[in-house]
Specification:
Number of strands: 15
Strand content: 15-25%
Helix content: 40-55%
CATH topology of the largest domain: Rossmann fold
Mean pLDDT: 90
Shape: globular
CATH superfamily of the largest domain: NadA-like
Strand order of the largest sheet: 7-6-8-10-9
Number of helices: 17
Bound molecules: iron/sulfur cluster
Low-confidence stretches: 1-35
C-alpha cells in the first residue's frame, strides 16, 4: 500500500475495513478505488453552491491551486485554475510551489502523480476519494510482481523493459522505475517505445493494452503477431514460454472502460449519418476502431485538431463525453458530435462534482485538510525515476 488517506473528519472506528469499504468510507489497499467523503457534503440542490465555491476560493487566494482534468464536469471546470491531461496538470502544480493546497479535480492516480511531482510542503487534495480509475485498477502491484516472476522464469526479464502508461497507480510507476523502465502518456507513447526497444528486446506495456498495441502497430510498424496479451487472472498470464519468448510487445490485459466502448459499428453508423465526417479517436480505443478512424491522438491532440479545423467541417470524436460536449460548444462553426449514440462519461471522474469541490474548499478555509493523497517515500523515489526517464526522452 503506497497511498495514505488522511481524514480530519471523524470516521467510526468500529466497522471492519471491508465493511467501511462497502459503505464507501474506507480505502481498498489493493485498488485505485478510494473512499467517499465523510462529513457534511452540501446537497446538490443547494442554490448557493456556485457562490460558496467562489467565496471559499477567494478566501484561500494563492494558497490553493485547482486543477481540472479535461474529462471533468463543466460545473467543476468553471473553478479550475488550469485544465489539461493528467501529466500537464501534475507539472502545472509543480510550477506553483507557493500553493499550499493542490485541489485535484481528476482521479486518484492523477493526484498521486501530482504528489510525486510537487514539493514536500504542498498537499494534494482529491475532493472525492471514490474517484478512482478502472484502468489503473486492472494492474495491482502483486499481479505485476507475479508477472515479472513469470518473465524471469521464461528467461526474458533481463531483455524486457517495462513501459507504463501515466494512467497507473504509484505502485506500478515505482515497479517501472525499479526495473529500468519509463512512464509514457498518450502523446509520447511512440517515443517511449522507441527508447525502450533501444534498451532491450521486449516491452512489457502496462496497464492499457490498446494504447500499447495501437502504438506498436501504427507507429512502430510491428505486427499484431508481435504482440501477446498477458492476462493476470490466468496462470502464467495465459501464455506459453514460447509465446513470451517470441513476442516483442507483452501487453497487460487492461483497458479504459470509457474508450473501450467505441466499436466498429459506432464508426460505420456515424459515417452513414454524417457524410463527409472526419472520425478522430483517442488511442485508448480498440485497435479496430483506431484502424477505421481518420485521425488518432491524445486529448491535447484532439483539442488542437479541432482548434485548427476549417469552419463548416464535420467531426465525430471518440473520447470522453464531457470534453466532446465542451468542444462542440466552443466551436459552434463546426459540426462536432460524439462518436457513439450511447452516453459515455467517465463515471469515476464524474464523482467530483460541485458539492464535493465546495466541501473540499470550505474544509480548507476552516483549517481542515481533507482527503490528502500522499505517496510513501520509497514508492515516490522509484516512481519519480520512471517519470524522470520520460521527461528525458528525446
Ligand atoms: S477515462 Fe478511462 S482511463 Fe481515464 S480516468 Fe476514466 S476510466 Fe480511467
Amino acid at each position: 500500500m503506497t497511498t495514505t488517506i488522511t481524514e480530519t473528519h471523524g470516521v467510526d472506528p468500529t466497522p471492519t475495513p471491508l465493511a467501511l469499504l462497502l459503505l464507501g468510507r474506507e480505502a481498498d489497499p489493493n485498488s485505485e478505488r478510494g473512499v467517499d467523503c465523510p462529513g457534511d457534503l452540501p446537497p446538490a440542490s443547494d442554490p448557493n453552491l456556485v457562490e460558496r465555491a467562489r467565496a471559499a476560493k477567494a478566501a484561500l487566494g494563492d494558497r490553493v491551486f485547482i486543477l481540472g482534468h479535461h474529462y471533468q464536469r463543466d460545473e467543476v471546470i468553471e473553478f479550475a485554475d488550469v485544465t489539461g491531461d493528467s501529466f500537464k496538470l501534475a507539472r502545472d502544480a509543480a510550477a506553483r510551489p507557493e500553493a499550499e493546497y493542490i485541489v485535484f479535480c481528476g482521479v486518484h492516480f492523477m493526484a498521486e502523480s501530482a504528489d510525486i511531482l510537487t514539493g514536500e510542503k504542498q498537499q494534494v487534495v482529491l475532493p472525492d476519494l471514490a474517484a478512482g480509475c478502472s484502468m489503473a485498477d486492472m494492474a495491482t502491484a502483486e499481479q505485476v510482481a507475479e508477472c515479472w516472476d513469470v518473465l524471469t522464469d521464461a528467461g526474458i526479464a533481463d531483455v524486457t523493459v517495462p513501459v507504463s502508461y501515466m494512467n497507473s497507480s504509484a505502485d506500478i510507476k515505482a515497479f517501472t522505475g525499479r526495473h529500468g523502465g519509463t512512464i509514457c502518456t498518450s502523446s509520447n507513447a511512440q517515443r517511449a517505445l522507441e527508447w525502450a526497444f533501444e534498451q532491450g528486446q521486449k516491452v512489457l506495456f502496462l496497464p492499457d493494452q490498446h494504447l500499447g498495441r495501437n502504438t506498436a502497430v501504427r507507429d512502430l510498424g510491428l505486427s499484431l503477431d508481435d504482440c501477446v496479451l498477458y492476462n493476470p487472472h490466468k496462470p502464467n498470464g495465459g501464455l506459453t514460454v514460447e509465446q513470451l519468448r517470441d513476442a516483442k510487445m507483452i501487453l497487460w490485459r487492461g483497458h479504459c472502460s470509457v474508450h473501450g466502448r467505441f466499436s466498429l459499428d459506432s464508426v460505420a453508423d456515424v459515417r452513414e449519418r454524417i457524410p463527409g465526417v472526419t472520425v478522430l479517436v483517442h488511442p485508448e480505443c480498440k485497435h479496430e476502431v483506431v484502424a477505421a478512424a481518420d485521425m488518432v491522438g491524445s486529448t491535447e491532440y484532439i483539442i488542437k485538431a479541432l482548434d485548427a479545423a476549417e469552419p463548416g467541417s464535420k467531426w465525430a470524436i471518440g473520447t470522453e463525453l464531457n470534453l466532446v460536449r465542451r468542444l462542440a460548444k466552443a466551436h459552434p462553426d463546426k459540426e462536432i458530435v460524439f462518436l457513439d449514440r450511447t452516453v459515455c462519461f467517465c463515471s469515476t471522474m464524474n464523482r467530483i462534482d460541485l458539492p464535493h469541490l465546495v466541501w473540499a474548499l470550505e474544509s480548507l478555509v476552516e483549517g481542515r485538510v481533507p482527503n490528502v493523497i500522499t505517496v510513501d517515500p520509497e514508492t515516490e523515489k522509484y516512481a519519480k525515476a520512471a517519470l524522470d526517464r520520460m521527461l528525458a526522452l528525446p
